């Protein structure tokens, strides 16, 4: 079938970075924490380390920890790499590993729930090792996370924060299925879902160093806002690309959300236009008929739902950028801003 071309977007709207920008000490610590005498758990852990991925969340944690430092020993020009300086304290590295463990555990569970074939270009763990092994390996990561947290200063505050976010992640995933089942999605529900799916963990990734270091409340709130808005922008962007991107760029089929009955930002925009009934019908039948996806893509262009989505991404990123102004002007703060630049859609 002929599909309309998605709106042309710059490279900045595709995957953030080819490299992780994380110090070797992070990967080494992550590998150590994931060691197990049980071969299948060990193999899943090795796959996690080898696959890498963007590692956005632990990167935000380490940069936030650096941004809270009043002095940095190195002030060299920033590139794509995070400074591997004494600012990466053992506690900050452990906290970044905790963030990655929570994220990775949720992905193991999500892949099974979504019946995904691949993760980061590799066969999904539950398809290679079975459901039980995949779920229990995710639980193993959560257990190791708790062990790491117990060794950090401010254990009670950090454990509570991680527990709250884990609950929000679960609620966001279940709410997404609930909304799809009832078939009457709203913008408020969508924002609740993407906060749980993505923004809550990025908010924690940014703010956890403030809890670790007992930073001033102003700095903690600034980092919370930065992480929350970055996460909301990231998920809206991801949802737009899922509907309007190209499979060769994304590395996965386009339109998976629509086929699962999930109303994302652009679809919700269409539900406020004269195309409402047609779009709602396609959504309820989960784009099961030939041409459904192409029709929704065409309607997105016709009613500028794509443009509305990119404006929302830009708005969220500006809120995140404004939050950074409440932090000391350090190279790490500049690098946190550079992460936003990689997501910003250009005119």
From TrEMBL:
Top-rank lineage group of the source organism: Bacteria
SUPFAM superfamilies associated with the record: Terpenoid synthases
Family: Belongs to the FPP/GGPP synthase family.
Protein name (Swiss-Prot/TrEMBL): Octaprenyl-diphosphate synthase
Repeat keyword on record: no
Entry keyword annotation includes Magnesium: yes
Signal peptide, first to last residue: none
Pfam family, one: polyprenyl_synt
Cofactor: Mg(2+)
Biased composition (Low complexity): 1-15
Organism, scientific name: Deinococcus piscis
Keywords: Magnesium, Metal-binding, Transferase
Annotated transmembrane regions: none
Region entry Disordered, spans: 1-20
């Amino acid at each position: 079938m002929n599909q309309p071309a998605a709106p042309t977007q710059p490279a900045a709207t595709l995957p953030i970075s080819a490299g992780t920008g994380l110090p070797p000490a992070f990967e080494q610590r992550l590998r150590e924490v994931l060691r197990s005498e049980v071969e299948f758990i060990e193999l899943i852990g090795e796959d996690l380390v080898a696959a890498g991925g963007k590692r956005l969340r632990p990167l935000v944690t380490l940069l936030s920890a650096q941004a809270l430092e009043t002095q940095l020993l190195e002030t060299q020009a920033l590139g794509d790499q995070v400074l591997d300086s004494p600012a990466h304290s053992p506690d900050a590295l452990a906290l970044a590993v905790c963030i990655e463990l929570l994220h990775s555990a949720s992905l193991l569970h999500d892949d099974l729930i979504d019946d995904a074939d691949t993760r980061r270009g590799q066969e999904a763990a539950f398809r290679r090792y079975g459901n039980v092994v995949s779920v229990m390996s995710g639980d193993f990561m959560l257990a190791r996370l708790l062990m790491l947290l117990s060794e950090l200063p401010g254990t009670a505050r950090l454990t509570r924060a991680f527990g709250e976010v884990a609950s929000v992640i679960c609620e966001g995933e279940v709410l997404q299925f609930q909304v799809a089942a009832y078939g009457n999605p709203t913008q408020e529900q969508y924002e609740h879902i993407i906060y749980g799916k993505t923004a809550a963990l990025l908010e924690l990734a940014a703010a956890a160093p403030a809890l670790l270091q007992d930073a001033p409340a102003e700095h903690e709130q600034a980092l919370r806002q930065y992480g929350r808005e970055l996460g909301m922008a990231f998920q809206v962007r991801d949802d737009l690309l899922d509907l309007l991107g190209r499979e060769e760029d994304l590395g996965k089929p386009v339109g998976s959300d629509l086929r699962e009955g999930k109303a994302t930002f652009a679809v919700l925009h269409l539900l406020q236009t004269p195309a409402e009934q047609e779009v709602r019908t396609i959504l309820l039948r989960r784009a099961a008929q030939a041409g459904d996806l192409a029709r929704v893509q065409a309607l997105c262009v016709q009613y500028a739902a794509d443009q509305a989505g990119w404006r929302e991404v830009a708005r969220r990123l500006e809120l995140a950028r404004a939050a950074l102004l409440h932090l000391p002007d350090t190279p790490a703060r500049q690098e946190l801003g550079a992460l936003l630049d990689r997501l910003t859609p250009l005119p």
